[in-house]
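Researcher: Watch the backbone:
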Amino acid sequence: MLDLRERPFTDRGSRLLVMAADDGSLWIARALYETRLADATVLTGLRVLSGDRELPVRRALPDRVEFAGGVTMAFAGPDTLVLTGRDARAVWDGGEAPIDGVLPLTTPDGPSTGGPTPGGSSPGGPGLDGGAVVAAAGARWRAWFDRMPAVPPGLRERAEQAWWTLAVNLVPIRGRESLIPSKYGYVGLWNWDAYFHAIALRHADPALAREQIRILLDNQRPDGLIPDVVHDHGVLAETTDLPRSDLARLAQHVGGPPDPTVVPVTKPPLTAWAVWKIHEADPDPAFLAEVFEPLARSQEWWFTRSDPDGDGLAEYLHPYSSGLDDSPIWDHGPRAEPPDLNSYLALQYDRLGDIAAVLGRDPGPWRERAQALVDRMVARRWNGRRFVTRVGGGEVDVRTPLEFMPLLTGRLPRQVADRLVADLTSPSFWGERPVPTVAFDDPQFDPDAMWRGPVWLNVNYLLVEGLRRSCYPDTAAELRERTLAMVRDGGGLYEYWNPRTGRRAGRATSGFGWSAALFLDLAHTG
């Protein structure tokens, strides 16, 4: 069931969203890259009337919106909504039209311009059959839900919401079907989001999962960098920008923002990891052969282009590249080396070794590089208590779960791994709803401020995997169960959650793609 607020009426492949206004009418907006829905409105004040009596919405389902009096709304195509029924009329701000069988509301100019044209032609041409439109929409959605990964009965309601979220977040970007993070402004194929999305898609549509990887690799730069975003107007692979909050904090901490400099931007290196997960679900050596060299070039980029001090440990050159651009790590400068980055790179080396083995190549050199990188991390960044975060050549004392990401490597000395797990399960990070993105007892903890305290599912997911790879299955199972319970009971699929209340935190977006994808994968019983 859709609430037409957090869960609007929309469809796979469509940029249109139908939502409820505070006065009970409906409004329609178009999802555009980096644009608020309020700035992309195409129709407001939509009501259905019979005579002078308003026919209210009775219920909204993935395939249709049902009004009193037998009137139904459904999608006839990505840019065409239809109202079907008899003896009723639609009114909206600036116009009205009778509903006598079928009333198309068409946006003929596509996803970026133009408003609806009531009574306009549909993709099927004149004589559109409203009953056939509704039936076709129902069949499409039944087919999608029939492919949902299996989950326990107690998680099914939230899983269905998650599976719906993934479907409606599929839109064409530059002619290719892309799973976007959210239709609320995040209308583009974001780099690491695509990897998390692929993890869920692999269970039902591995070809579509592979397509998300291909889109990114097809836009890889010659130097090996995989861009941050592929969007309607091109790609984002470099910037002079800093998040506004980061600029303000840098002005406070270092006397003013740096001069604008073009900096390459990407996202954390998890491409080979995602490729291998798809392969585990649906083996495809041809795909591995296709992507192997691009993956190797991406891995090399981090050490040749993103290690400015040449110490063999890569750094994030820009907050955007970390994916954590509101983290207090960035209060201290625009470049940082938290422990997650080189952990991902060590994991990538091992996954490149796995892929090499399938392709009949020697995995040994990749395994050796993985171990060498972990040894370097332990020798240079382990202080006997934790892995440190370095910014501008110095250490910062903020506590984040990034210091536990070396567990992902599965290669830590046992005494180091034991200390990390003890820290993770201490009151600093472990609660009814772990894991906060800043420690509960850190002075900078804020349960509602994006990466400054809320729970993010991708962090928890990676920690569950790290615990498993480092042979702590019981702790991994406990974190998985607490994460699933938080999402099940938290009211929706949000960008992030308040760890104190378990509800939507601050300004978190709803209908968020990787939250839906990772919840499904954690819940999957197949």
